[in-house]
């Protein structure tokens, strides 16, 4: 099983906490939309969110009997409208040219199983009767297009379409994972049925850790293109910014859901498309990220999110992990001094008001060198307000939120927290830092321990 210490476990969101506390963020109207795949599809489409094309809907047996099945040749999915946990879903790859001994049409499923038309109709009747519905009540059937898999995923599976689940709370993406279907899961991207779950770094869209099913750790998976095993970490997800934007738009489209899971697939031509939203997302996503959702949700619970761009910035700077800290084999730790020179990124298009510090290049980015003091007594790094202003870091879009604190004189104040990017000993750090008055101090930037993971600090005195 996964190596998670007790301190980390306390930060995990438990099922009881999810049900008793955070589901209160979801109104009955919002939950009714999320629990109904047809209502969800219509609501999202009206809001401009891309969803798979609806090919048919059966509300009663007569609809099923009168439907022209001959027009469905390939690539379609049959779903119960009120289903949950991936139950009752049939994924059809194509119709076969040959028929069985009774002359019945046959179809090839994504799992490799061959199914007859009469068996498909019987399955639809069971859906209508409520066999797979969440509360055992009569249900509807929808048939929608099967997404044409993005070429990047061809190497990861041969039995289904991978998807990305993003958990959104208070408009902000707080955690994400890549779900990969397996033969064990029957071609479905569902962890309960045996699919792989790979944690994703929110800042970069790069996979980190992996589990199989409900929690068995996986370090390597088979690459069908390279014909060998590859590490689960280091897989770059295409359209990452667009995926996060899509997840945020889903919550905007269904405002009654303050806490939701969004399942997104990547079409090779159209990019991100939303399969469904979930008002009760599973909690195994925490295992494949080796991180707790409880702490993340608490951090953004009271933040006023100004826009979709602000929501993504919060996710990137607050919850993005340093990739070197997430790989299976850690990089060799670098030694740093109590005083270090860091290279701070300048926002694109901004002309800094600096006289002594020349503008340098760090790859494709413009940077300036800033002297920084290492302080392991401080959790979060901080920057001088005047320096931050000169570097263009105090603009509205850069301020993530205001942190309330009490000064030594007993006065209550609000301190801005901004998103910054800098390089320390060549290592890129994307983080959130406090803005403070350091005008009377020699160093205008203080490095807190949150941004010092992976470094060894010299004992040399300043």
UniProtKB/TrEMBL annotation:
Q: Does the keyword Nucleotide-binding apply?
A: yes
- A Gene Ontology molecular-function term? ATP binding
Keyword list, A-Z: ATP-binding, Nucleotide-binding
Give all residue intervals belonging to the ATP-grasp domain. 41-304
Q: Is Transmembrane helix one of the keywords?
A: no
Recorded GO CC terms: cytoplasm
- GO biological process terms held by the UniProt record: SOS response
* InterPro entries, alphabetized: ATP-grasp, Peptidase_aspartic_dom_sf, RimK-rel_E_lig_ATP-grasp
Q: SUPFAM superfamilies, alphabetically?
A: Acid proteases (SSF50630), Glutathione synthetase ATP-binding domain-like (SSF56059)
Spell out the Gene3D superfamilies in the cross-references.
Acid Proteases (2.40.70.10), ATP-grasp fold, B domain (3.30.470.20)
Protein name (record): ATP-grasp domain-containing protein
